[in-house]
C-alpha cells in the first residue's frame, strides 16, 4: 500500500506557506505529503514546484543540507525577498553543523536562524515544524562550541540584566548546559544531585523568561556574542 501522495500547489496561494529550499534528495514527496497533511491550513511547496518569490506569505523556510556551504548567500537572498520568514538550516552530520555554527555564529544568533537535524523520526519532524511556526528557535546545545565565551558571559553576568538575576550556581549550570552537558553529567561534575540540577535549571528558565533549556542556551549565546 502506497503512502500519501504529495500534491504541490497549482498556483501561488494567499495562505501562509512552508517552503522547502532544496532537492528531493533531502525533502522526499513522502515527507512533504505527510507535512502537508499535518499542517493542512498551510501551503507546502518546494524548489522543484515553484519559485518562492511568487509566494509572499511564506512563514517558514527549511533549507536542505547541501546548501549549508552557501549559508551567507542563501540567507541574504531569502531575507531580501521574505524578511519575515523564519529560516531553518537542516543538517545530516553534527560536525558539519557545528562548523557552520562556529563560522556564522553571530548572524545565526542575531537573525534567530535554527539548525535542525534531518535524521529524526517523522513525529519529531512535525514537532520541530510546530515549534518553528510558534516562533521558537532550535539550536542543539551540542552544537555550541564557544565554551569559553559562554562561561565568561555567565561568570561576569554584566551584559544582560536577566543574567544578573542568576546566582553563581545557576550561572555555572547554565554554562555547562550550553556546552551540551546533560543533567547527570552536570550533577557529577558539581557534586550535587541530578534533582538539584533540574531545580536550578527550572529557576534559570524562569528568570531568563524563556520556555526551555534550548532557549536558555540561545539566550546565553546572544549575551556572549
TrEMBL record:
PROSITE patterns linked to this entry: HTH_LUXR_1, HTH_LUXR_2
GO biological process entries: regulation of DNA-templated transcription
GO molecular function annotation: DNA binding
UniProt-listed Pfam families: GerE
Entries under Gene3D superfamilies matching the protein: Winged helix-like DNA-binding domain superfamily/Winged helix DNA-binding domain
Keywords for the protein's UniProt record, in alphabetical order: DNA-binding
Keyword match ATP-binding: no
SUPFAM superfamilies for this protein: C-terminal effector domain of the bipartite response regulators
Membrane spanning residue stretches: none
InterPro entries: Sig_transdc_resp-reg_C-effctor, Tscrpt_reg_LuxR_C, WalR-like, WH-like_DNA-bd_sf
Keyword DNA-binding on entry: yes
Highest taxon above the source species: Bacteria
Ranges where the HTH luxR-type domain occurs: 159-224
PANTHER family with a match to the protein in the record: TRANSCRIPTIONAL REGULATORY PROTEIN DESR, TWO-COMPONENT RESPONSE REGULATOR
This protein's name: Transcriptional regulatory protein LiaR
Organism, scientific name: Palleronia marisminoris
Organism lineage: Bacteria, Pseudomonadati, Pseudomonadota, Alphaproteobacteria, Rhodobacterales
Amino acid at each position: 500500500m502506497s503512502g500519501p501522495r504529495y500534491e504541490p500547489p497549482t498556483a501561488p496561494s494567499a495562505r501562509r506557506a512552508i517552503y522547502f529550499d532544496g532537492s528531493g534528495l533531502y525533502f522526499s514527496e513522502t515527507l512533504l505529503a505527510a507535512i502537508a497533511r499535518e499542517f493542512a491550513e498551510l501551503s507546502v511547496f518546494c524548489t522543484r514546484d515553484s519559485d518562492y518569490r511568487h509566494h509572499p506569505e511564506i512563514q517558514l523556510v527549511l533549507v536542505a543540507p547541501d546548501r549549508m556551504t552557501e549559508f551567507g548567500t542563501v540567507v541574504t537572498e531569502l531575507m531580501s525577498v521574505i524578511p519575515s520568514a523564519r529560516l531553518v538550516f537542516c543538517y545530516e552530520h553534527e560536525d558539519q553543523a557545528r562548523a557552520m555554527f562556529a563560522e556564522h555564529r553571530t548572524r545565526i544568533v542575531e537573525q534567530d536562524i535554527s539548525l535542525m537535524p534531518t535524521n529524526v523520526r517523522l513525529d519529531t519532524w512535525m514537532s520541530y515544524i510546530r515549534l518553528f511556526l510558534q516562533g521558537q528557535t532550535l539550536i542543539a546545545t551540542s552544537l555550541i562550541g564557544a565554551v569559553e565565551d559562554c562561561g565568561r558571559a555567565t561568570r561576569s553576568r554584566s551584559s544582560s540584566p536577566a543574567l544578573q538575576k542568576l546566582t553563581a550556581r545557576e550561572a555555572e549550570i547554565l554554562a555547562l548546559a550550553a556546552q551540551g552537558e546533560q543533567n547527570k553529567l552536570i550533577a557529577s561534575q558539581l557534586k550535587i544531585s541530578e534533582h538539584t540540577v533540574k531545580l536550578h535549571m527550572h529557576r534559570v528558565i524562569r528568570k531568563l523568561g524563556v520556555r526551555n533549556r534550548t532557549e536558555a542556551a540561545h539566550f546565553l549565546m546572544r549575551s556572549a556574542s
